Amino acid sequence: MSKVSRRDVLRRGLVGAVLPAGWGRLAPLGFPIGLARGDDLAAMPGLIVRSSMPLDAETPVEAFDRFLTPNDLFFVRSHFGPPATELTPWRFEVDGLVDRLVSLSLDDLKNKSANVTIPAVLQCSGNGRAYYQPTIPGVGWDRGAVGNAEWTGVRLADLLNQAGIKPEAAHVQLHGADLPPHPKTPAYFRSIPLARAVALGTIVAHSMNGEPLPRLHGGPLRLIVPGWAGNHWIKWLRKVTVSTAEAPGFYMQTGYKIPKVPTPPGVDLKPADLVPVTTLNVKSLIARPLAGAKLPAGRVEVRGVAWTGDGIVEKVEVTTGPGQPWRMAKLDGPATPGTWRTWTLPWDAPPGHHTLRARATDSLGQTQGETTPWNKSGYLWNGIDHVSCEIC
Ligand SMILES: Nc1nc2c(c(=O)[nH]1)N[C@H]1C(S)=C(S)[C@@H](COP(=O)(O)O)O[C@H]1N2
Ligand SMILES: [Mo]
Q1: pTM for this model (two decimals)
Q2: Which end of the chain offers a freer environment for a tag, N or C, measured as fewer CB atoms within 10 Å?
């Protein structure tokens, strides 16, 4: 579990008094841990709230008709809720198995370091959990715990180079500033392998779609790990520790694992039978028509997005009903790893009730099946997306 210094505890404890009753000394940075502030929520009225404490809210699929998902429609997922990031000037630190400690202010990162801007898909590993049968406890994400944004920040590789990595280094442990509401609850403490940490797409981001990173999305700083599930994209990032070992504790050692081989419900798996959720699988979503839409017969533009973890999306096929052929959608380019592609397909829609289905295939030859093998946490759902509509 994350070690928090005495100084941190004292500093955070100062504002403990503003917490809701019962959250008392528990809450570290004080300002509504586990609660979204009214102004955070008011700024995002378009989200579909799945849980309010902490705030888990998904993007309506309408928004997936374009390349970039706007910040105010971008899904939010936090285990405990945002810390009071505004209370102390933020610093980002690199320590552990390094030749020298690095400690940078936000200004150092924004204005005195080489910045890059990259588009990348952020998807929660639980996106689509609601589709698993038998049903799975946990946030009941439908289709919208995913989004694509342009992230601006500094390559983690550059920051690690500044620190100088010792030869025995193998992992980078990621410290977010959010702490759990109860001392017995494990902290959200995770790590990524060094190889992934130095990958060119891995950045410490301070901006999202050209705006300062919103607080609910980890502002002032978060990690971007293109191609990997959202659980690696640590928000409120204040320190990385270079180490020989993975982060200890529940969220790295127990959570976010799936069976190595598909296993039916009810089978008890040992840790050796599990692998961590890392790379996203190939997936597409239909953004138009909307489910339940009533549209006049004639030309309808079917559209959506498709992405994958490794490689690029090479094709999206759409069928407009049972017995109808799978037709190739037009993919917008360029195909860039880590981000998604929008796609369209013109459809001469005859009157009637129709169920459209879309499936993507990537450059590694992976495609989507009807369902995804059941796993007890409901991770990485990528069953073929379908939408029913009425043509009159
Ligand atoms: N510090 C911290 N980082 C975190 C989390 C968290 O609870 N605490 N949740 C993770 C999970 S599970 C996901 S899916 C993404 C969600 O990012 P978003 O809220 O910007 O969509 O943040 C990740 N980073
Ligand atoms: Mo997640």
Answers
A1: 0.91
A2: C
